[in-house]
Amino acid sequence: MLFEKTMLDTVTSGLAGCVDQWSALFAQATESLDEDEIRLAGLFRAILLERENTVVEATEAFLDEGPDADVVMDLFHCLDELSGVNGELADRAEECRRLVVPRTAA
Q: How many domains does the chain have?
């Protein structure tokens, strides 16, 4: 639930005002997360917070783990939301999408 709220805040207010929320979310213990959630967290950390260009590396790592179709659909929904935000964040979301689509197309 916290992820969804933070995503909504990011889309409506912009990333700059939500960096602390994302940092706190990613710093939480992962014991309560399943494997797919852990992989998604790593990918979103790269898209949202890491300034160096780690989107390719994080996307490849996510895909190499073989996420199931539901997780990929969740990812696409989030990427759609982030693509609507202007600037670097939208570019990073689009870069991730370009990498995921060919590897997940049926």
A: 1
Range of the domain at 82: 2-104
pTM: 0.87
Q: Which amino acid is at 88?
A: E
Which residue matches tokens 């179709």? 69
C-alpha span between 27 and 21 (Å, rounded): 10
* Phi–psi pair at 14, nearest 5 degrees: 100, 155
The rounded distance, in Å, linking the Cα atoms of 69 and 50 is 26
d(CA 55, CA 32): 25
Distance CA(41)–CA(4), nearest Å, equals 12
Contacts of 62 (CB under 8 A, 6+ apart): 39, 40, 42, 43, 75, 100
pLDDT in tens, 83-105: 988 889 999 999 999 999 998 87
Smallest CA-to-CA distance from 15 within 37, 57, 35, 44 is with 44
Q: For residue 106, what pLDDT is reported?
A: 61
